[in-house]
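Hi, here's the filled form for the chain we discussed.

Project: internal
Contact: R.S.
Residues: 110
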Amino acid sequence: VDAAVAGALGALGADEAVARLEAAGIACARLRDVMEVAEHPQLAARNRWREVGSPAGPLRALLPPITLPGGQEARMGSVPRLGEHTGVVLRALGMTDADVAELRRDGVVR
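And the returned structure, exactly as it came back:
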């Protein structure tokens, strides 16, 4: 099957291949790179972009592709600063304040 598809579509550009598949009633989609996905008009039309804070300033972020119960929107918090949650995570893993302080002092974590 792979050889037959490659033989039929391999010499075509992406737009022509998709047009022929669609004309034949075959479900298909074009493979897009990251910039093409980010610039896709459907994401803007469906209001999927949000602005989040970051140490470098505001960033555009894409909502996760899930629907929460009751149509609730996923929480989109700020991007943490490097090391902002290190202590909390290490304590949750069972380390003591002294352990975390030692790791910070030795430059293992920030």
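Let me know if anything looks off before we file it.
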